[in-house]
């Protein structure tokens, strides 16, 4: 299996301000450093928002995993926006979202996308881990912790 490199430098935005899910997705794409070098912001935004219009990606427990396929990307990218006040995401449990993940991938990386989605869902089951992600003020520490959890889970589940 091709190795997934996720949550490296510039993948986390603390303090998202938007309260609406579509505005929060747009804000995350604009603010997250990892996507700032991507020339196709509009395509990424359109893919994530169009997918969100089909059915909510608000999974419950304060988590949403927005996603979309986008031509022009070389590899799968995962970013995280954290909202202390919460975002109205029409989540399955009716509660606000505090952890907004965005996965964008080129269409030919669908297997990697499914592995990333499954891995995120698995590591985010841990309430203490979710609480840590929301409460930690240093984005770099958040990246390190989530990267470690992500890679550890992949090794256990897929190797």
Question: How would you sum up this structure, described in words?
Answer:
The protein is α/β, with parallel strands linked by helices and 159 residues long. It has one domain: Mannitol-specific EII, Chain A, CATH 3.40.930.10. Helices cover 45% and strands 20% of the residues. The chain has a 5-stranded mixed β-sheet with strand order 1-4-5-3-2, sandwiched between helices. Helix 1 runs antiparallel to helix 3. The mean pLDDT is 92.
Describe this protein with a few key phrases:
6 helices, alpha/beta, 5 strands, 159 residues, five-stranded mixed beta sheet, Mannitol-specific EII, Chain A
Major sheet description: 5 strands, mixed
Low-confidence stretches: none
Supply the CATH class.
Alpha Beta
> What topology, given as strand order, has the largest sheet?
1-4-5-3-2
Portion in beta strands:
15-25%
Report the mean per-residue pLDDT as an integer. 92
Class computed from helices, strands and strand pairing:
alpha/beta
Radius of gyration: 14 Å
Counting copies of identical and different chains, the oligomeric state is single chain
Based on CA inertia axes, which overall geometry fits?
Answer: globular
Question: How far apart are the termini?
Answer: 8 Å
CATH architecture: 3-Layer(aba) Sandwich
What is the N-to-C order of secondary-structure elements (H for helix, E for strand)?
EHHHEEEEHHH
Write the layout of secondary structure elements.
Blueprint lengths: L11 E2 L7 H11 L1 H4 L4 H14 L3 E3 L2 E7 L7 E11 L9 E9 L4 H14 L3 H9 L3 H20 L1
Parallel strand pairs: 1-4, 3-5
Antiparallel strand pairs: 2-3, 4-5
Helix pairs in contact: 1-3, 4-6
